[in-house]
Prior knowledge:
2 domains, two-stranded antiparallel ribbon, globular
Amino acid sequence: MSRGSSRWKAEKGAAGVPEVSVVVVTHNAKPWIEPCLESVRGYELIVVDNGSSDGTPELVRDRFPEARLIEQQNRGLGAGWNAGMRAASGKWFFLLNADAWVVADGVAKLVETLERVPEAAVAGPRLRNQDGTLQRSVRGFPTPWRLTTEYFFLRKLGPRTRMLNAFYGAGFRHDSELEAEFLMGAALLVRPQAAAEIGGLDERFFLFSEEVDWCYRFRQAGWKILFTPAAEVVHVGGASHGGRFFREQVQGHLLFLEKHHGPRTARAARRLLAVALTLRGLVFPGKRGRMYRDAAQWLRAGSLEELLAWRR
């Protein structure tokens, strides 16, 4: 999408403009979509359904008639977010996963954060698991070394060091405001002017790393990415895919590296990931081990170009 495209114009008339447009992308999200949408009721609701077959669209129409429901072929999470933002008319865009729900006045707290820091493009909340424990959302951009520390479990040796755990924010406690490299995309408040400047999400990222690439582009353009513990969101995590898309997660790393650091770096990451996942496949039993072995075999099965173009 071109810089400053009219499809991403953020300037709107003051009269009748909703404060926040909430965009939720669904794909067979029926178990979680009701608490998700209930938590943001009262804002402009836009639900983009990516080809659900479990009755999600019917539930949305029945329980949330005020929501604008957009039904389309499943072209990935980023494509769904883009479609929702194109339909949005609010002063702010709030992207919320279908398996997440906002606690209390979390949306208002995120708005306060972006209003206070005009150079920030994105603000994200503290994420909680369903049992109330912290879900770490402050992350560092992938590099071959950072992927090594993650996939070979080296970060366990120094969980609070940037050398061994920059991928997970060097053990950041998530109890104070922080400018982050990127935030996990379960819940993000976005400044429309910033989205208008750099364009929407790259739709080549089907399910993982779309927010990584977007945050990278925001930062390259001079915008900040902020984490704030003032807002909280409960996130189930993996509810819609249950780990079935691990290949897509690995592919997302490679696509990010190829796009921003070149094919040579992506090929180096491919080799180290193949070794790491082979070792994991030997160590872990059962379904988890098979998942790692399958991903390692896939990494060796084709050229980098074929891996990046692969779709399930």
